[in-house]
Amino acid sequence: KQEVTQIPAALSVPEGENLVLNCSFTDSAIYNLQWFRQDPGKGLTSLLLIQSSQREQTSGRLNASLDKSSGRSTLYIAASQPGDSATYLCAVQGGATNKLIFGTGTLLAVQP
Amino acid sequence: GAVVSQHPSWVICKSGTSVKIECRSLDFQATTMFWYRQFPKQSLMLMATSNEGSKATYEQGVEKDKFLINHASLTLSTLTVTSAHPEDSSFYICSAPGTGALEQYFGPGTRLTVT
Asked: In this complex, is the C-beta atom of B92 within 8 Å of any C-beta atom belonging to chain A?
């Protein structure tokens, strides 16, 4: 059974810092991995999707990497801003079912 | 991009009543939709996979008779919480895969509070 864990569970940083969020998964037979952002009481916003054949994806200040063999992904946020404050979720999709298994989430607070 | 809507965005109901939540794909067709539940400060847990024209597939531990799913068209799936109890209070989110089946598009969620 696939299990997805995120570390740290919560993170507070001053504005301007670069930071790394970690995601690990137990079954490396994944189809792709996605990073999402969730604001309080809201739905999900897709940030980046990495296919299993890819090593990383970049969008603006965000960079996500994937090491499938070790079951790990990282989300790097450069020059953090207060508007980045949210919960960040990673999710893996395996096989042909399109089901997403979500991680435990990291609650990020960027202090102005 | 593809848009998924949910209705209502929030609902308060009394214990013992039933509540229906709608999930619609607005500009694409979805033969499959997924229903998730999220308790406060927890991650999303997949409840069931809704299949257009056939029965839904429920995850282990989810009561199919309590959470009724109907996927009657290619753009609409409904989740009915029957005989709701306070412990059913949660944030319910649906999603649908895009045409390329790589990405999933999420609805804005429905906050259910059972009093």
From this structure: no
- Ranges of beta strands (E only) in A1-112 are 4-7, 10-14, 19-25, 32-38, 44-51, 56-59, 62-67, 72-77, 86-93, 100-102, 106-111
Task: Give the burial class of B21: count Cβ atoms within 10 A of its Cβ; 0-12 exposed, 13-18 middle, 19 or more buried.
Answer: buried
The string of pLDDT tens digits covering residues B68-104 is: 999 989 999 999 999 999 999 999 999 998 766 567 8
Distance (Å, whole) CA B51 – CA B73 = 10
Task: Determine the distance in angstroms separating the CA of B99 from the nearest CA of chain A, rounded to an integer.
Answer: 12
Chain A: give the shortest CA distance to residue B18, in Å. 22
**What's the rounded Cα separation, in Å, for the pair B67 and B90?**
13
Q: What is the pLDDT of residues A26-68, one digit of tens each?
A: 998 888 999 999 998 888 988 999 998 999 999 999 999 999 9
Give yes or no for a cis peptide into B97 (omega within 30° of 0): no
From A107, A87, A103, select the one nearest A8 (Cα to Cα).
A107
Q: B-chain residues within 8 Å CB-CB of A43? A: 6, 93, 106-109
Q: Do A41 and B91 touch (CB under 8 A)?
A: yes
Which residue from A minimizes the CA distance to B35?
A99
Handedness of CA A54, A3, B69, B38 (dihedral sign): negative
Query: Which residue stretches of chain A are H helix?
Result: none
Q: What are phi and psi of B69, to 5 degrees?
A: -120, 135
